[in-house]
Amino acid sequence: MTAEKKHFNIMNHKLVPLHLIISEKEREELLKKYNIEPNTLPKILDTDPVSIYIGAKPGQILKIIRESHTAKEAVSYRLVVESNK
Amino acid sequence: MERAKSVTKKIGKIEFSLLSPNEIRKMSATKVITADTYDDDGFPIAMGLMDPRLGVIEPGLRCKTCGQRVGKDKCPGHFGHIDLAMPVIHVGLIKTIRNCLRSTCRECGHLLLTDKQREEYFKELKRYKQEGRNTTYLLKQVIKDCVKAEKCTRCDREVGKIELDKPTSLRENGKKLTPSEVREWLEKIPDEALPLLDINKKSARPEWMILTVLPVPSVAVRPSVTLQSGERSEDDLTHKLVDVIRINQRLQENRDAGAPQLIVEDLWELLQYHITTYLDNQTSGIPPARHRSGRPLKTLAQRLKGKEGRFRSNLSGKRVNFSARTVISPDPNLSINELGVPIRIAEELTVPVRVTSHNIDWCKQMIKQKYLGPADHDEYIPGVNYVIRETDGMRRRIKVTEKNAEDVAEKLEIGSSIERQLMNGDLALFNRQPSLHRMSMMAHRVKVVPDKTFRFNLCVCPPYNADFDGDEMNLHLIQGEEAKAEAEILMKVQENILSPRFGGAIIGGIHDHISGCFLLTRKDRKIPLDDASHILAAINYNGKNFKTITENGKKYISGKDVFSALLPKSLNLEYKAKACFNCDTCQAPNCPHNAYVIVKNGVLKQGIIDENGIGAFKGKILDRIIRDHGMDAGREFIDNATKLAIAAITLFGFTTGIDDEDIPDEAKKQIAEGISKALKKISGLVKAYEAGELESLPGRSLEETLEMEIMKVTGKTRDMAGEIAGSHLGMDNSAVMMAKSGARGSMLNLSQMSGCVGQQAVRGERISRGYQYRTLPHFKRGDLGASAKGFVASCYKSGLSPTEYFFHSMGGREGLVDTAVRTSRSGYMQRRLINALEDVKVENDGTVRHAGGQIIQFIYGEDGIDPARSVGGNAVDIDRIIADVKEGV
Q1: How far away is chain A from the Cα of B854, in angstroms, using its nearest Cα?
Q2: Which of B849, B856, B862 lies closest to A70 in CB terms?
Q3: Do B456 and B334 share a structural domain?
Q4: Using the beta-carbon criterion (under 8 Å), do B855 and A34 form an inter-chain contact?
Q5: Residues spanned by the domain of B64
Q6: E strands of B450-570, at which residues?
Q7: Quick check: B619 and B506 in contact, CB under 8 A?
Q8: How many residue contacts between A and B have a Cβ separation below 8 Å?
């Protein structure tokens, strides 16, 4: 399913925060900052509607910027993983 | 900061396998053939269920298998076995058996897949394994595909429909399959097919799921107990095994004698029942096996399952030493971080002290002092219970008694340790169950007191949710220095005054403390000098003298000044008291009700001190003192404020009784008028509804509209009655004082007592159930009026009419049931939540991770703020900063 076929753009929904695929450089920095393997990150399925929409492939890392009650904006990261079907 | 690397080990894999009949026989110490346990002389029968080769439980006896005893060398116990006359299905594996039968051919045992399908699945499975992915979904798909097949691709046999009759019988096309037939079928399944059936071919064969040999656990697993009467009482498992052997024997005899098929089948089924209940006595579909007394037997599955099972009760649940439990009672003279511990408990609980060159004299003194000189019963002298001497790896515990105290003290060596009794000032953890939040367990300083109850300050009741109607609480003594330091920093009561829930105090003045402050500071209270001195003596006041007011030759001190003795000199604060009437136009600094509090430089200039001043959760002064002067100052403030308030209220006197709810006849008349007006209005609404003249509200049916309108009227009526009653109960009324100051009760309680109880509700609606079309036989059918639907026009003081009383009971019962249901349900919800989150913690790089290192949050709470140190959840109190800056200018 490609984005054009959808008649409703999920990214515009108010409950869907901004998802970005991060660059190789940013990825390095992130992993170094927290001293972690990519596997330590929270996950997102490659079949997740958002993953499909932005074309994320397994192994890539998404940066998610969402609104927060406590901090105004909260940044988190998710590793894209292959779904079990 | 970088996250500290912790040593965690991951479990690589857990493998479950089946015991093969051969393996069972191999590990068996003996075959069990006799259903009896002991002979007439009390000796175990050979090849019986208590055969000494199965291990020993009595001390001194030697095991016939390993030659070891119970005590030191410890015989672990040995399995035996029962050879079953006919095979029997294992209940725990019935679903796997069904799946195996459904996906294989009865003729040739091969999977019911085409070659192509099979190859594809194998390939897929290999790929999944390589990638370390979960294969459950794939394997379910295999079974689904197999069920679809109509004919075996190898031998062309028609595939029958396999049905499972719970709990242990299987049918093929409606015809019952005996366990022997099932076993023959399973034997045909080739090893290559097993991976697709989710069976590890290295550790199991499908036919092992049908029992032909039953392992008999050792006697250590099912010990028999000798009752006082000399009778032997056997374990439930032994009872069940007796049944199994007995039926097994009869089955064998009947079969060998060539008994009719029917009888053999019946016995076979009975054997199946006994083995099923032996494994799990709560299998649905069959009656549980019972003891002679009617109690269901506790068999294998019951030993492991549930709250009282091996896992939750014995493996996750641990019991501790150095703890005590007793009834609690209040003591307002203790500080909030103190705890009164009875002497009896203090003498039993000990703290280990290592003897060094620095403290050896002190240790010797400790050992001796209890027995020196005449005993003074009023004073508690801590002693030493044990001296532990360690010489080349040998530990010796010497009990200190009156006789040997002197001797033991003299022989004390450096390097030994003593177990010292509890002393004043020791730190101990105090806890009340249910431990719902971290404040349910706090560290207190011990103060040894006479009598038999734990005693603590009333202000710490709210965090423990304790009262004194018979509650018991637990005490845990801290045994090591690290633990002590940790408790000192994290767990002391004063460290927990601020709640991590919202960043406000949860320990503060309650009940009489608030009433006391209220009495002390309200209006322009003047206290005679000697009385004031008496109150101030309660907090050992030794500051400056107060400004005295002379009236008629007598000297007085203002109550507000007395209260100011508690406040730090730098305190500047303005806020609205609880007694605030929320007037339409607030006259802020010049409040006519004295409800605007101003504190300047540590002096209470105006306003009443009530719940919003010193109370838990709301106390503004308390909050400010903790924030500006720290936890210890906060503790001291609470201690002193409560002592002062208690001294004041004791001096002034304070009481409430039923006459506090008396209102003049004139007021009663007013209320009665208001109620009759409301009743008329309601009957008017009902008439309008019946005539079809009522207009429905948007989105509501006509009935709903009527109900809503009536509820509105009844609500207003109660408020009206409350207002009239309240206006006649002046501020000099004790009950009103308590309600207005927030000490106890509310104005609603008062208006229900002296005005009108109001509409009773069940499920948020007017009471509507009972008889046909009416609530009680006292009313006409279809009566929609106020009194027929649970409106209580009386007040508690005048008493309720019988129908009103009935409706009130209905409402009351609902409340009771609701709380009972809510606590159990929320308790289970919390258990699941905590089990899921128990290993989540904030690492020192600021991330929130669980034990495996997986990141849950990148910054704790997304803002990295400790809510206990926040101001109502915010990192900074902007208003306060602005106010402070303004003041500075």
Answers
A1: 5
A2: B862
A3: yes
A4: yes
A5: 31-78+217-312
A6: 454-456, 472-477, 526-528, 549-551, 554-558
A7: no
A8: 43
> How far apart are alpha carbons B571 and B603 in whole angstroms?
8
| Residue whose pair of structure tokens reads 């016995």 in the numeric block | B267
User: What is the CATH classification number for the domain harbouring B272?
Assistant: 4.10.860.120
Q: Are residues B431 and B478 in the same domain?
A: yes
Where does a domain end: B595, B618, B652? B652
For A40, the closest chain B residue by CA position comes to B854
Q: DSSP E strands: which ranges in B716-755?
A: none
Please give the structure tokens belonging to residue B653: 């006197």
Model-wide pTM > 0.90 = no
Closest chain B CA to residue A32: B2
CB contact under 8 A, B862 and A40: no
Structure confidence by residue, pLDDT tens digits, B155-170: 878 888 888 887 888 8
Q: What span, in angstroms and rounded, lies between the C-alpha atoms of B110 and B185? A: 10
Alpha-carbon distance A40 to nearest alpha carbon in chain B (angstroms): 5
CA distance B97 to chain A (A): 26
The one-character DSSP state at A14 is T
How confident is the prediction for chain A on average, in pLDDT? Answer: 86
CB B362 within 8 A of CB B431: no
pLDDT grade for B4, boundaries at 50, 70 and 90: low
* B chain contacts of residue A76, beta-carbon cutoff 8 Å: 857-858
Q: From the CA of B853, how many Å to the nearest CA of chain A? A: 6
Asked whether the beta carbons of residue A77 and residue B858 sit closer than 8 angstroms, the reply is yes
Please report the sign of the dihedral spanned by the C-alpha atoms of residue B24, residue B30, residue B35, residue B37: negative
- Beta carbons of A76 and B854 less than 8 Å apart: no
Q: Token pair of B274, please?
A: 């006994």
Helix (H, G, I), strand (E, B) or coil at B342: strand
Distance CA B396, CA B416 (A): 10
Q: How confident is the model over B573-631, as pLDDT tens digits? A: 888 888 777 777 777 777 777 888 888 888 888 888 888 888 888 888 888 888 888 88
What was the ipTM of the complex prediction? 0.89
Encode burial over B413-425: b for 16+ CB neighbours within 10 A, e otherwise.
Answer: eeebbbbbbbeee
Q: Does A42 touch chain B (CB under 8 A)?
A: yes
Helix (H) / strand (E) element for B216: namely strand B210-216
DSSP B690-705: HTT-PPPPTT--HHHH
Would an 8 Å CB–CB cutoff place B440 in contact with chain A? no
| Residue B744 structure tokens | 């106890």
Residues B300-324 have pLDDT tens digits of 999 998 888 898 888 888 889 999 9
* Of B424, B462, B506, B456, residue with least CA distance to B332: B456
Q: Which CATH class is domain A12-81?
A: alpha beta
Task: Point out the domain boundary residue: B791, B817, B843.
Answer: B817
